[in-house]
Structures are given as C-alpha cells and as structure tokens.
Specification:
Blueprint: E1 11-16, E2 21-25, E3 31-33, H1 41-44, H2 55-72
Parallel strand pairs: 1-3
Antiparallel strand pairs: 1-2
Amino acid sequence: MKDGIHPDCPPATIACACGNTFVTRSTRGDFQVDVCSACHPFYTGTQKLLDTAGRVDRFRKRYQQKTAATKAAPAPVEPAAASVAEPSASPST
C-alpha cells in the first residue's frame, strides 16, 4: 500500500434507534442509524411473509388440491387384453 493516500479511519460509535450501540471505524465519525443487526427482522428471525391479496393462501390451496387429487385418485386400471380368437380349423374333406 502506498503511504499517504488512504483516509484516516478513527473509531466511530454507531447508535441505533432501538438503543443498541457499537464501535467500528469510519471516516464519517459518530452517527445514528434507524435499523441495526440487533433489531432488523431479517437478522432476528422475526421476518414475516407479507401476503398481498391472499396469494400465498391461494397457492397453498391450489397445491393441496393437486396433491390430494393425486393421492385420492385410484391407480389406473389397464384394460384386459382382448383375446384374439383363432379361426377354427374347419375340417377339409
């Protein structure tokens, strides 16, 4: 690395709206954020599936109908092979 071209990165305190604070290094200095890893739904595991217009329920209902229909349907029965009648041998006189 070349000397003198990199900015100075002093320790900075980051404060979240939830009350969590942590120290990192930043050229910006101390600042506040709205969401951090301690309160973000994706990282905390509290993320909920947004169901707009019932799409998820509609998908689940359709999927259940298909699987229920395939499980409830009887196995296909193959038609019995038609026996081919051999021509009767007529006695030739």
